[in-house]
Design brief:
This is MALR1 protein. Helices cover 0% and strands 17% of the residues. Strands 1-2 form a two-stranded antiparallel sheet. Strand 1 and strand 2 form a beta hairpin. The radius of gyration is 14 Å and the shape is globular.
Length: 77
């Protein structure tokens, strides 16, 4: 897309360890072993927000951690 969509997750009612998932039935074959995801995020609160983690699900259902951030420093994207 062209940045026309967003996902909002209200973390105020969440507990440590909870997950939000974006799931698609479309498969993205990594024919050259490369898969790219680009996104922007805003993670700011008066209390610690925890860690934002991005996983991929491999063929047999195992989640593989690809990226994480605990940035809660600035009120910006």
């Amino acid at each position: 897309g062209k940045g026309q969509h967003f996902l909002y997750l209200n973390s105020s009612a969440q507990k440590e360890g909870n997950r939000a998932r974006i799931i698609t039935t479309k498969h993205f074959p990594a024919s050259f072993g490369v898969c790219r995801v680009r996104f922007w995020f805003w993670m700011f609160a008066s209390r610690q927000t925890g860690v934002l983690k991005v996983y991929t699900a491999e063929e047999y259902g195992m989640d593989i951690l690809m990226w994480s951030s605990s940035r809660n420093e600035e009120n910006k994207w």
